[in-house]
Amino acid sequence: MSLNLTGDADADQLLDSDPFALLVGMLLDQQYPMEAAFAGPLKILQRVGSIDVQTIAELDPEAFATLCATPPAIHRYPGSMAKRVQELASFLMSEYDGDPTRLWTEGDPDGKTVLKRLKALPGYGDQKARIFLALLGKQRGVAPTGWREAAGAYGEEGSRRSIADVVDGTTLQEVRTFKKEQKAAAKAAKAKG
Predict the structure, then answer these.
(1) Measured in whole angstroms, how far is the alpha carbon of residue 39 from the centre of its chain?
(2) Staple partner for 150: which of 56, 77, 115, 189, CB 3.0–4.6 Å?
(3) Which of 111, 28, 92 is nearest to 54 (CA)?
(4) Fold (CATH) for 9-192
(5) What does the DSSP 8-state code read for residue 73?
(6) All structural domains of the chain with their residue ranges
């Protein structure tokens, strides 16, 4: 199944073909619209000429931050996100020889192991790691034993909780509605508390 996360054929094709681009899109998916975050890797590719892990890791940080901030920026916080993208690339170079697929292939890992590896990535907390694991399982055919359990609610069949569930414009709106409802419920609970 081809990815349809951004509504932009070129951005989705890059995410579909490049695991590092997909990891970067997930990294950018915070305090920013999902589809815009996942379009960020294409902007990086267009400006740098590459989205190769080693190339990104070795770029001058100031020059890379400037490229990321050039309108339209890769994120609403382009400077801090440029730093995080480079930290992610550097980590992948040092721990996985620049091959992000080793996160989910090395040593035939189970779902818990893949989740642990994802959580170790710079910029990836527990929720982001679970969502990415669900994205791998639901849309990339990466289904290590126990991945649904490790992904938690994000791994549920038929859910509309995250980018892992976005396959078209309709599911994007369903996920957006779910997120709005969750925020409203949390706000109401806080007001009561």
Answers:
(1) 11
(2) 115
(3) 92
(4) Endonuclease III; domain 1 (1.10.340)
(5) P
(6) 9-192
